[in-house]
């Protein structure tokens, strides 16, 4: 027994957690989303830069605007999920950095004065936070359906601005009928890990 996490929690977060393609009507509340964020915000990022930004699409009008930018095959699930979140990277995260890294406020100007450097850092670190977010959704007993099949420029224009890059759209809710495909295989430890 190498893992210290309770086996039921291991199942909830990984072994039995699946990417849902259909959902029940049960609402996902703001309290649930806040609890998820307040858990996963502790996941690490470089320099604690924390570049993830989240747009919750709750209104019918917002949902309609989002669905039109999704790939055809993703539209039905984005239209019917109880809650949909647009996860984005803030390429101007350095503005918050002195507050987020009080022991080293000079990092803002030393490392992140240039926009291309910030875009690269924001892309990596917000993607890490997106992964924490998906696991957090599972920790709330909900299923996530992350998607990158969309018109990114369209979503950016419709919901974000030039400083925020869309990373993925996540459908969130309780899995509905026929919610998933058969589980696909994963690479084994030996296929992935080398030791030098
Ligand atoms: C970043 C990302 C993008 C994805 N994009 C799509 C998508 O556009 N459409 C879709 O149907 N599934 C999408 N998926 C779902 C994956 O195919 C699914 O998570 C993967 O096959 C694992 O499925 P499982 O969790 O049921 O084992 C995406 C998943 C991730 C993490």
What topology does this entry show?
Blueprint: H1 7-15, H2 30-40, E1 52-57, H3 60-67, H4 75-80, E2 83-90, H5 97-100, H6 107-111, H7 115-139, E3 143-147, H8 152-159, E4 164-173, H9 189-192
Antiparallel strand pairs: 1-2, 2-4, 3-4
The structure holds flavin mononucleotide.
Flavin mononucleotide binds at residues 18-19, 74, 146-149, 168, 180, 183-184.
Structure description:
- This protein has nine helices and four strands.
- It has helices at 7-15, 30-40, 60-67, 75-80, 97-100, 107-111, 115-139, 152-159, 189-192; strands spanning 52-57, 83-90, 143-147, 164-173.
- The two termini are 25 Å apart.
- The mean pLDDT is 97.
- A four-stranded antiparallel beta sheet has the order 1-2-4-3.
- It has 196 residues and is of the alpha+beta class.
- It is globular and about 50 Å long.
- 30% of the residues are buried.
- The structure holds flavin mononucleotide (FMN).
- Flavin mononucleotide (FMN) is lined by residues 18-19, 74, 146-149, 168, 180, 183-184.
């Amino acid at each position: 027994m190498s893992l210290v996490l309770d086996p039921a929690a291991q199942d909830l977060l990984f072994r039995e957690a699946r990417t849902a393609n259909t959902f029940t009507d049960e609402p996902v509340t703001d309290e649930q989303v806040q609890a998820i964020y307040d858990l996963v915000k502790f996941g690490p990022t470089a320099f604690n830069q924390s570049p993830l930004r989240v747009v919750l699409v709750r209104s019918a009008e917002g949902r309609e605007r989002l669905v039109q930018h999704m790939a055809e095959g993703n539209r039905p699930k984005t239209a019917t999920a109880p809650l949909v979140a647009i996860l984005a990277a803030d390429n101007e995260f350095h503005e918050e950095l002195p507050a987020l890294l009080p022991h080293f406020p000079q990092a803002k100007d030393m490392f992140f004065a240039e926009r291309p450097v910030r875009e690269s850092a924001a892309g990596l670190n917000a993607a890490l936070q997106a992964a924490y977010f998906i696991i957090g959704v599972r920790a709330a007993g909900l299923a996530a359906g992350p998607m990158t099949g969309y018109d990114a420029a369209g979503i950016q224009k419709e919901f974000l601005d030039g400083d925020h890059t869309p990373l993925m759209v996540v459908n969130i809710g309780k899995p509905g009928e026929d919610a998933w495909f058969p589980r696909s295989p994963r690479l084994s430890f030996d296929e992935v890990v080398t030791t030098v």
